[in-house]
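Teaching assistant's notes for section 4

Start the section by putting this record on the projector. Ask students to predict, before seeing the second block, whether CRISPR type III-associated protein domain-containing protein will look compact or extended. Collect guesses on the board.
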Amino acid sequence: MPSPMLSDKMNRTGKQFSENQRMNRPTAITATYRIVTPMFCAGADQQSAELRLASFKGALRFWWRTLMAGKFGNDIEGLHKAEAELFGSSDRRFGQSKVRMRLRWRSKIPAKSELVTEWPANQPAIGSTYLGYGITESGKKGSPTYKPHRIGLPEGREFEVKCIGNERDLASVLPALKIVGMLGGLGSRSRRAFGSIALEYLDEDSFEFKNADGFRAFINSLVHEPCPILPEFTAFGSHARLYVGPAAESARESHRLLGETYRNFRGLPSPLRGRSKIPMGLPLQGVDSRRRASPLLMHIHPVADQFMPVVLFLPSVFHPEIREGNQFGFFQVVQQWMESLNATEVKLG
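Reveal the predicted structure now:
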């Protein structure tokens, strides 16, 4: 008969083995999303509209990285390794994703006649049109530079993503599945609130909010460990800010008002000119041709029967002009715009 000490050790080993078995057992979770604003998502043919799993995976990986800043700081190599191990990589060291995904329409697939072809309007460059550069028609018809208005998927349709993996890996993906459906979107100009998506269900659990307070509290619960220093990549750091604006009766009206507010600060008739606009994103015509995504991410979210504009500011090491010791001062102009909004700040972390 084994001694009490040996029996205790055997019991602990058995429990640990059972726990490992449970965590490695294949399981699944299904996330249901609604398209909130028209989504301009396509494959090789830019004059088509297609809901693509690759687009969703790309967005999911982006939001997963934003939440990992507190864990990895500026250890970019460690972050990329963890991302590749979870989501897969072309690098043979990592191979395929540990979480398999399947996407399908939950509602009827939009017919050709239901696709969005005239929103936002091509002119004038105000409201949603101001935010829609690259979506609206550009160039002169018949010229080599002419580009027609992009075709979009209509708002209101639902789709679901089924994720299959073991419990440990699904637990790693779960926060990203939530936050992409609270702050994110898919397709062209998603950082400007085109293609916003709203999480409605995780399996049978509802994520529809009856009021703005519930939405704000849930967002706050998702950001546990913001990075204490200015991140070298777009992520939740200690200087991240989130604002939720007043609701409108429709998603398009909420988007229009957000675009008009942004235009009034950044474009005409704003006095903001030249290099002072650099912190809002590059390239900037006649100023800097380099590319750097804007640290401002916009989103439209349904709450009850209305729609709220959401603006997230994720500053990171952005441009060589950021001076040592005054990194956040570089983004002062962005902070000024955020504070000028008639909006409520959501405390993060």
